[in-house]
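Exercise: predict the fold of this chain.
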Amino acid sequence: MDNNVYTHVLLGDKMVNMTITVPKEMKNDLDLFPEINWSEVARQAFREKIEDLKFLLEYKKNSKMTEEDTIMLGKEVNRSLHKRYSEMN
């Protein structure tokens, strides 16, 4: 038997059931606050994440950057952060 507890989450205007799996410890923590509508909390988190991803899709659609450009930019950011944190110590 696994340590996960299954919770139903309702999404959308025509609500459908969705099962999510959470660790037993998280379920115990959720149970400390029975007055909270955890399904609504989950729906809001899903909405926010979906909006973030839609924004990124739209932004990416108009981007002229290549994969190679993004790798070079990432390396530059890493070097800059490494330098900044090295100077702090």
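Check your answer against the key: The longest strand covers residues 4-11.
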